[in-house]
Amino acid sequence: MIVYLKPRSPFAQVVPRSDTLFGAVAWAIRLLYGEAALTELLVQFDEAIKVDAEPPFVLSSLFPYLEHKGNKLRFLPRPLQTPAQIVLTNPQNHQLAKKLKQVTLLSETVFAQMAQGELSDDDVLSELEKKGQARWALHGGALIAQNERDSVRLFPSLSWHGETARNSINRLSVSTGDEGGQLFYTPIAAARLLESLDAHTGFYCRVRLGGTASQGVRAKLEAALRFLGEKGFGGDTSVGRGHCEIEIDHAAGEIGNAGGERLMALSLLHPSEKDRRHFTACRQSMLARLERRKGFIESAFVTFAQLKDVSAPSVLRVWKPTLVMLSEGANFPRDGQRQIYGSLFRDESEREGMAFQPRINGLGYVVPLTVKEATP
Questions:
Q1: Cut 0.70: pTM above it
Q2: 351 near 45, Cβ under 8 Å?
Q3: How confident is the model over 184-208, as a mean pLDDT?
Q4: Residue 193 pairs with which residues in a beta bridge?
Q5: Cβ neighbours around 364 below 10 Å, total
Q6: What span, in angstroms and rounded, lies between the C-alpha atoms of 227 and 224?
Q7: What are phi and psi of 23, to 5 degrees?
Q8: Strand partners, 163
Q9: Are strands 11-12 and 262-265 parallel, antiparallel or unpaired?
Q10: Beta strands 142-145 and 105-107: pairing type?
Q11: Residue 125, CA distances (Å) to 75, 100, 144, 359 in order
């Protein structure tokens, strides 16, 4: 299924990714259904991973979508590819080739062509050189089909990144002046709205349900997502960040090429022991970018700590361990019929005041595809 988020306010820092989304959903389930329900869900994940069966669900990261007069146009990350040795038929198109290299998003129409192994950078550039007669077009860092251009051109970009002012107040002087308060700026990420043209952008994620308990999990998952729409996704939710309207599409099918010999990640992926062995064996044909991920445990932890102990500090920020993950767009050969790639990391280090072991989502939402080789 697909979950659409139409932001009513900007996200703090950046648009949330799969590890942040999973953490938010897990804490929402705990808030709504209690700790026992969350513990039971995590046990289901552990049991599925142990026998290489489908886990209760996997989440992709958030990607942009555009809606114009009720029609939605979704975008996906561009599969990482071997750099193409492009031969320009016209030296004046050097800038066009540079723009193509900077593309990070594909419309689903273009992605479907690439997933079938029918499209490479060389093919795209050859089309773009035809200008008005080309099947594809570049806009706002995305590669789209020519017939999608009328909707996309309404927006210079699919999302907006900027800064907002915040005040730190000295609680003794009740001031932001020299007595200890501070004015500072924090990054934000937002969608765009053109109300007069009945058009807006937003963000969406894909959710793949699996396992024997999927129906029971579906109800809790949907309730958690709708709750998060009101509570907020990501950081700074207490000051109104990340509040969204939620729309869930159950009819959306899978994407990619079912017969593809490679898999591409639509989420962050933290390699398991099996993954590391497989990636080592196929390292010559892996295409991946590594990222270090680190953040704070959900602020709801403070609420639970204070409910159990009124002397608990009002501000308690606990760092998660730093993990190295494969970023979205990474692709690699299949490992036989294996169902699960990535891991649900368990932090087993002892932490003062914490009676549980934090979990970090590194399970990969992978889709099959065929990559057309670049011109040598």
A1: yes
A2: no
A3: 89
A4: 200
A5: 28
A6: 5
A7: -60, -40
A8: 187
A9: unpaired
A10: parallel
A11: 20, 8, 13, 44
> In 3D, which of 160, 152, 154 has the Cα closest to residue 65?
152
Phi, psi of 255 (to 5 degrees): -120, 170
Q: Rounded CA gap, 346 and 348, in Å?
A: 6
Phi, psi at 54, each rounded to 5°: -65, 130
For CA atoms 267, 270, 275, 279, the dihedral sign is positive
In the chain, DSSP finds a helix count (H) and a strand count (E) of 9, 20
Rounded distance, CA 269 to CA 59, Å?
Answer: 11
| Among candidate residues 45, 52, 51, the one with its CA nearest the CA of residue 339 | 52
Give the Cβ contact number of residue 51 at 10 Å.
Answer: 8
Residue among 80, 69, 194, 66 at smallest CA distance from 140: 66
Residue type, position 62, single letter = L
Residue linked to tokens 């099996």: 274
Distance CA 119, CA 121 (A): 7
Beta bridge partners of 221: none
Cα distances (Å, whole numbers) of residue 363 to 40, 59, 260, 334:
18, 8, 20, 16
Question: pLDDT digits over 154-181, tens only?
Answer: 998 888 888 887 776 666 665 655 555 5
* Contact status, residue 65 vs residue 105, Cβ threshold 8 Å: no
Per residue in 214-258, pLDDT (tens digit) is 668 999 999 999 999 999 998 878 788 889 999 999 988 889 998
The answer to whether the CB of 235 falls within 8 A of the CB of 13 is yes
How are beta strands 290-293 and 105-107 bridged, if at all? unpaired
**How many Å apart are CA 22 and CA 362, to the nearest integer?**
9
User: 10 Å Cβ neighbour count for 35?
Assistant: 12
* CB hemisphere CA count around 106 (13 angstroms): 23
Question: Would you say how long the chain is, in residues?
Answer: 376
Closest C-alpha among 232, 255, 258 to residue 243: 232
**Whose CA is closest to 264, among 283, 288, 285, 291?**
288
Return the closest-CA partner of residue 319 out of 344, 301, 343: 301
| Spans of all domains in the chain | 2-160+187-259
